[in-house]
Predict the 3D structure of the following.
Amino acid sequence: MNPAWSMIFFTTLAGAGQGLMLALVGADLAARAGLAQPPASQAFVIGAGVVLLLRGVGLVAAVFHLGR
């Protein structure tokens, strides 16, 4: 099995973005349930920006696979 580099980058970046989003949602739910202290609101804004960046770069990597 020899996958294209673009697909490796896509799956890695998309998975990292999805994992970060789940971590942010988990932190928010834990804070609402009183199990943890709520993080600063800037953490959610920065985290959401990083998620969008990771997912966007992953989609750009996937576009390079279309011609193959």
